[in-house]
Amino acid sequence: WEAELCASLDANTAMLVKRTLSYLALSAEELKAGMDRNAQAGLPMDPEFDRIEAQMQPMLRRVATMAVQQARAAMGEGEGCAAAEESAIMEYVTQMEGANWQLRTPLEMLCAGVRTPEDLLECIAPLPSGKPDDRSARLALSVMALVLQIEAGG
Fold it and tell me: DSSP secondary-structure letter at 9?
C-alpha cells in the first residue's frame, strides 16, 4: 500500500511520506532509544537553555560538589561542605529562586542522596500557567549529571 500511496507523488514528497511511515512503524522502545532524557521526560526544548547552562556551569559544579559532600556526610562517609562554601552556594540558590529557577528543593534532594531523574523531577512544580517548568527541570537534571560525574571520580 505504500507504493500505491506514493505512486502519484514527486520523488521528494514520496521520500518524506516513506520516512514518516517508517517512524509510525517504530515501537515505543525504538522511539525512546532515539530521544534524549529531556524528551523522554516530556520537557519542551528551550533554545536558550544550553547557552544559559554554559554560563552557570562553574557555579553548578560547586552546587554539585556540595551535594556530593553533604550526601556522603549524611551517610557517615566524610565531612560536609565547609560553612563558608555552603553559605555562598545557598546565597546563589536563593538568587536563582528569586529569578524563578527552582533549585532549592532539587539540591536538598541531591544532598539527601536522591539520584534518579524521576524522583528529582517530581519536586519541580509547574509554572503558574500550568505548563511544566522545563528550565528548572533541565537545570536540576544538569546538576544531577554533574553529581553523578563527581561521584564517578570526574
Answer: S
